[in-house]
Write a structure and sequence with these properties.
This protein is an all-alpha fold. It has one domain. It contains 5 helices and no strands.
């Protein structure tokens, strides 16, 4: 196999493997994963490790967003106020992966003392600041 055929193959395998348990990854590590995704989105070449990290960041953020949007819809359906994070309606159906990556990288740069926290806490805090619920 040539290098050109190996890279897509590695990305496909990484996408099919279960992502690491969120509790096992702290904010510093997740920032590094998302920084790799940020570099990749700018067209910078990544080694195999960087590609896998970038995919892990994207997997987590896309899964989080989808789950949170479902939670928002359920809350609205039952007349309950959404909790903490409200993705704007105008972003529904759009790929905001790059924006989400930028939010995480910036949040971790602005809050380096939170690097020991789990990615669940980091993502909730970062998106809560960027996409707060009104009222």
């Amino acid at each position: 196999m040539t290098r050109k055929t190996v890279t897509p193959f590695v990305i496909l395998i990484a996408m099919l493997l279960p992502s690491p348990v969120a509790a096992e990854i702290n904010g510093r590590t997740f920032r590094d994963y998302c920084a790799a995704a940020e570099r990749m989105s700018r067209g910078e070449r990544q080694d195999q490790r960087g590609e896998i990290r970038a995919v892990a960041c994207l997997q987590y953020l896309q899964g989080f967003r989808l789950a949170w949007i479902i939670q928002q819809l359920m809350a609205e359906k039952h007349g309950v106020r959404p909790f903490h994070i409200c993705f704007p309606k105008e972003l529904e159906g759009q790929d905001i992966s790059d924006q989400m990556i930028d939010i995480i990288v910036k949040y971790m740069s602005d809050n380096p003392t939170e690097g020991h926290m789990s990615i669940d806490v980091i993502v909730m805090r970062a998106f809560g600041e960027y996409y707060p619920c009104e009222g």
